[in-house]
Design brief:
Layout lengths: L17 H26 L14 H8 L7 E3 L5 H6 L4 H9 L32 H15 L5 E6 L6 H13 L3 E7 L2 E2 L2 E2 L8 H7 L4 E5 L3 H18 L2 E6 L17 H8 L3 H11 L4 H23 L31 E3 H15 L3 E6 L14 H4 L4 E4 L3 H13 L3 E5 L10 H8 L2 H4 L9 E6 L14 H5 L5 E3 L4 H11 L6 E6 L6 E3 L13 E4 L4 E5 L2 H14 L5 E5 L2 E3 L3 H11 L2 E8 L4 H12 L9 E5 L8 H7 L3 H12 L2
InterPro entries: DH_E1, THDP-binding, Transketo_C/PFOR_II, Transketolase-like_Pyr-bd, Transketolase_C
Enzyme class: transferase
Protein name: dihydrolipoyllysine-residue succinyltransferase
């Protein structure tokens, strides 16, 4: 067996002047005073939600952030107040945030677990364990791409080491030599579980497996933490990631109100006896700092924090009318101009490849990352040849969907324009948090402070016996999440124009391709054309019935419409193109003209996009209708494998034609 060791880093003793150490002491007192008031106010019922105090851990936060620049970045976790304060965030805004006031750091939209200020490099605390680690990798990629010397510090607890997110993020950071310090605050407990009961290997051993340097430090000694971070951050800026493990204590429970019955009384008492502030006080006295000076610093900081809390509590609540603000960032007016496709027929696949090329050429901030997208050109060869033109901006990743999506989220927050690929739509399940709780929500939870312009490309499509785990149409799942835009083009021109628009959009966009269309040809787009997001197109005018569809099924509907025209049935086909937000006005306008509606999609019918369209038309267009609404989709079951069953399961042209005939016969 080969024995692997982490690369060795030598930590020089931090020789801090008395003034510098006094500054560190001040920062620790600030956190202690803040958390003490928060604990008291939460117990009194004046702070809603959940609170996780960092009392006892002040030295780790201050030491980790003490010598970071303003432009350096951090990601934090649910116990993040101290990290934010140590990075320079104003206590007044933080108190206001916890009270839920309009003047809160993020306008009362994040609360205790979601404080952020990207302008200060605070990319956000996070209520999902380990979620900040892949986001830190994305921010690290941005720093690397820009070459600006920034470093990212990603705080996490010992419990997060059991999450796959930790391993995916550290693995990717090591492969790409990203400037990230993964900073573990090991307080001995993952919620209620003792660390020794949750890990068969030490963090140092795990670091060795990833060939990442490891530094262990006494988290109660701020001088030692500052020294370790000087070494770690210095290495990360030029040599890649470092793991720092600070052994610390957690005075309070996992959350405020936790009675800690799972901790032995002797162990709890021993933890309370370790006071990092007292340790620093003794160090200051040993350096000759007068006790009155130390006490003055302490009392001044405590008074300042108390005054901030009182002022914050008196602030106004947010205006209820603002409840929907920041869900999506406004799309620039007039930025999108659609051009008619005029070129010779082009494969759908080639149009997507051209869109990626043109987007990367137009925007030096744009990067494209995913599994096999560079050297292999993607599993369906969509990106074949592009890496030759953009060798530093088309990046192959490991098979790590969470890390891939984290690169998108963190990269967008740190200034990149990321395009990331998930090989199959079915695979979003293994990394859904980064879409559901990160990409979709961070702009809202930060009151618009977090920039979240990223594009996620993926593909789906049944009909090739790919089976139940490679054939799912999951667009309704994604369209149900506020904050996401979902695009599903049917033609080459729309595939090009919508992808270009997606990569210029300030919001997270899911771009879903149908692999059964990759070889289909249709008129090529005009170079540089942009298709407007949220605008449907009338693919075929008609007068008797409206058929609404998207993606591959649009083409099936068009063929059916041509056949039914021979029977004297005039069918208007609407191609949604954008599933979320869908174009209500175009659909309702068409139904007003035709008085009948059929909705067709490849996904299962139950709880699908068609159900949302039908409900809207039934409410807002009821008086237009002369017949019941028809829906055509797959059976409510997993996709079968064998061709005969798969074809029976999928909707086809006969199903579409039958639905149209039924509705026009009434």
């Amino acid at each position: 067996m080969v024995h692997i060791e982490s690369p060795a880093l030598v930590v020089a003793e931090a020789d801090l002047s008395s003034d510098t150490l006094l500054d560190a002491f001040r920062g620790m007192v600030r956190i202690r005073a803040f958390e003490t008031i928060v604990s008291r106010e939460y117990a009194a019922g004046r702070i809603p939600g959940f609170v996780h105090a960092s009392l006892g851990q002040e030295a780790t936060a201050v030491g980790a952030c003490f010598e970071l620049d303003r432009t350096d970045m951090i990601t934090s976790n649910h116990r993040g107040h101290g990290h934010c304060l140590a990075k320079g965030l104003d206590p007044l805004g933080m108190f206001a945030e916890l009270y839920g006031r309009a003047g809160g750091t993020v306008g009362g939209r994040g609360g205790s677990m979601h404080i952020a200020d990207p302008e200060l490099g605070i990319l956000g605390a996070n209520g999902i364990v380990a979620a900040g680690l892949p986001i830190a990798a994305g921010a690290g990629l941005a720093a690397q791409q820009f070459g600006d010397g920034r470093v990212v510090v990603s705080f996490f607890g010992d419990g997060a080491v059991a999450q796959g997110l930790f391993h995916e993020a550290v693995n990717l950071a090591s492969l790409w030599s990203l400037p990230v310090v993964f900073f573990c605050e090991n307080n001995g407990y993952a919620e209620f579980t003792a660390a020794e009961d949750g890990h068969p290997a030490t963090l140092e051993q795990r670091a060795a497996g990833y060939r990442v340097p490891y530094l262990g430090v006494d988290g109660g000694d701020v001088t030692a933490v500052i020294g370790a971070m000087r070494t770690a951050a210095g290495h990360a800026r030029i040599g890649g990631p470092v793991i720092v493990e600070a052994r610390t204590v957690r005075w309070h429970g996992h959350y405020e109100g936790d009675q800690q019955k799972y901790r032995a009384p002797d162990h709890l008492r021993a933890g309370l006896e370790v006071d990092c502030i007292e340790i620093t006080r003794q160090q200051l006295l040993a350096q000759g700092v007068d006790g009155d000076t130390i006490s003055t610093v302490e009392s001044d900081e405590q008074q300042r924090i108390a005054a901030a809390a009182e002022q914050a509590f008196a602030m106004e609540d947010p205006d209820p009318a603002s409840v929907g603000d920041y869900v999506l960032q406004a799309r620039p007016p007039g930025a999108v101009v659609e051009a008619e496709p005029t070129g010779e027929p082009m494969k759908y696949l080639a149009a997507i490849r051209l869109a990626i090329h043109d987007a990367l050429e137009a925007d030096p901030r744009a990067v494209f990352a995913g599994i096999d997208v560079a050297a292999g050109g993607g599993v369906f060869a969509v990106s074949r040849g592009l890496a030759e033109s953009f060798p530093d901006r088309i990046l192959d990743t490991p098979i790590s969907e969470s890390a891939i999506l984290g690169v998108g989220v963190g990269g967008a927050m740190a200034g990149l324009n990321p395009l990331v690929e998930i090989m199959y739509l079915d695979f979003i399940g293994v990394a859904f948090d980064q879409i559901l709780n990160q990409a979709a929500k961070l702009h809202f939870m930060t009151a618009g402070r977090a920039q979240m312009g990223l594009t996620i490309r993926t593909q789906f499509g049944a009909g090739r016996s790919a089976g139940s785990q490679h054939s799912q149409s999951l667009e309704a799942l994604l369209a149900h999440i506020p904050g996401l835009t979902v695009l599903m083009p049917a033609t080459s021109a729309d595939a090009y124009g919508l992808l270009r628009s997606a990569m210029q959009d300030p919001n997270p966009v899911i771009f879903i391709e149908n692999r059964m269309l990759y070889g289909r040809r249709s008129p090529a787009p005009e170079s540089g054309a942009l298709v407007p997001i949220g605008v449907a197109r009338v693919a075929r005018p008609g007068s008797q019935v409206t058929v609404v569809s998207y993606s591959r099924m649009v083409l099936e509907c068009l063929e059916v419409a041509e056949r039914l025209a021979e029977e004297g049935i005039s069918v208007e086909v609407i191609d949604l193109r954008t599933v979320a937000p869908w174009d209500r006005d175009t659909v309702l306008g068409s139904v007003e003209r035709t008085s009948r509606l059929v909705i067709v999609h490849e996904a299962v019918t139950d709880f699908g996009v068609g159900a949302e369209i039908a409900a809207t038309v039934a409410k807002d267009g009821f008086w237009f209708l002369d017949a019941p609404i028809e829906r055509v989709g797959a059976r409510f079951q997993p996709a079968p494998y064998t061709p005969v069953l798969e074809q029976e399961w999928l909707p086809d042209q006969e199903d579409i034609a039958a639905a149209i005939r039924r509705t026009v016969s009434i």
